């Protein structure tokens, strides 16, 4: 950060007689404005996913912060595109601010074993302050030593960035979160359906992705990503006529007492949530959808076989999850905005 800030101030014109105060102020204003707008847009599009993928977004936040500092370091090399590069760096760091703040709250809950989130947060803040102070002292020394030597600046920056990325990757890998999200539920279910046993949080932590799938070509192929085929909280009015017909058939045939409906189409499984469903019902609907997705790869009668599995094995699966330390009170997912209403337990189903 010290190296990138030094480059940024130099590009703005600090120390140059030709630089004007109003010019530097305007450039700094554009930088801050872009960051604010970027933070708002990022929250709008990804805010509901931060809880369910806290590990991934914690690591992405650090990567985006490094990318923002890289933009600041590059900016003096392209004077004609300086403002554009400056705004890109600010945009990248705005994602960092939102994602790191939100995931810090989620991870604090994980470490608060005695419901002492405030105590954990205060101590974490103090540790970060001490680390920042030490980093500032070393950063000022490094900036002074490398001043005027562009090769030394770039070598130092790239080395420190690689160490930073690796350290954050290892730190995120060490986290063994016990709350269920889409991917962890998928890993646990597939292993249970094969062996009848439940993986521990530590073993699941080694299998789950901490980067988006498209950024992680070296990820394990041991488990299929069933959760990527499931749409939770689908809006009923978004379904076409054929899908609505299948939905009414399923409602009358399979889901007379359930607070959710499942609809399988072209390999994708849509979950329609009842307006009176609880977090436990949403978790059950998601597990049911994962079972159907797994069985549909082997058989065409996914509804029948998945219901048979749920009747025989679901309670045992939940009990083994609880005994292994997993939290089964709710599913970490995006907010379920769209819910439907139908009469449960009657022969004639009606969906609004």
UniProtKB/TrEMBL annotation:
Tell me the compartments it is located in. Answer: Membrane
Q: Where is the Root UVB sensitive protein C-terminal domain?
A: 198-342
The residue ranges crossing the membrane are 67-91, 151-169
Which key words tag this protein in UniProt?
Membrane, Transmembrane, Transmembrane helix
Q: Residue ranges of the Protein root UVB sensitive/RUS domain?
A: 2-195
Q: Which family does it belong to?
A: Belongs to the RUS1 family.
Task: Please name the PANTHER family in this protein's record.
Answer: RUS FAMILY MEMBER 1 (PTHR12770:SF31), RUS1 FAMILY PROTEIN C16ORF58 (PTHR12770)
Q: What is this protein called?
A: Protein root UVB sensitive 3 isoform X3
> Which species is this record about?
Spinacia oleracea
């Amino acid at each position: 950060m010290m190296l990138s800030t030094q480059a940024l101030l130099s590009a703005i014109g600090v120390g140059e007689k030709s630089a004007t105060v109003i010019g530097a102020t305007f450039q700094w204003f554009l930088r801050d404005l872009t960051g604010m707008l970027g933070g708002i847009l990022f929250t709008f599009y990804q805010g509901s996913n931060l809880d369910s993928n806290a590990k991934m977004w914690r690591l992405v936040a650090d990567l985006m912060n490094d990318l923002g500092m890289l933009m600041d370091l590059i900016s003096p090399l392209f004077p004609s595109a300086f403002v554009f590069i400056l705004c890109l760096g600010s945009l990248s760091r705005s994602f960092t601010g939102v994602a790191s703040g939100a995931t810090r709250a989620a991870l604090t809950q994980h470490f608060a074993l005695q419901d002492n989130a405030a105590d954990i947060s205060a101590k974490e803040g103090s540790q970060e302050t001490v680390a920042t102070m030490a980093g500032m002292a070393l950063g000022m020394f490094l900036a002074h030593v490398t001043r005027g030597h562009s090769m030394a600046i770039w070598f130092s920056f790239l080395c420190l960035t690689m160490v930073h990325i690796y350290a954050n990757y290892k730190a995120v890998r060490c986290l063994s979160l016990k709350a269920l999200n889409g991917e962890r539920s998928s890993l646990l279910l597939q292993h249970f359906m094969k062996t009848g046993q439940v993986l521990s949080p530590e073993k699941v932590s080694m299998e789950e992705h901490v980067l988006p799938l498209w950024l992680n070509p070296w990820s394990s192929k041991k488990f299929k990503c069933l959760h990527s085929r499931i749409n939770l909280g689908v809006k009923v009015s978004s379904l076409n006529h054929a899908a609505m017909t299948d939905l009414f058939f399923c409602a009358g045939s399979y889901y007379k007492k359930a607070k959710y409906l499942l609809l399988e189409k072209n390999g994708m499984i849509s979950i329609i949530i009842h307006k009176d469903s609880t977090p436990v019902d949403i978790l059950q609907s998601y597990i049911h959808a994962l079972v159907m997705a797994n069985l549909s790869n082997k058989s065409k009668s996914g509804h029948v076989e998945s219901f048979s599995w749920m009747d025989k094995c679901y309670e045992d699966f939940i009990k083994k999850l609880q005994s292994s330390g997993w939290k089964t009170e709710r599913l970490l997912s995006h907010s379920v905005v769209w819910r439907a209403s139908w009469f449960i337990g009657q022969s004639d189903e009606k969906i609004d």
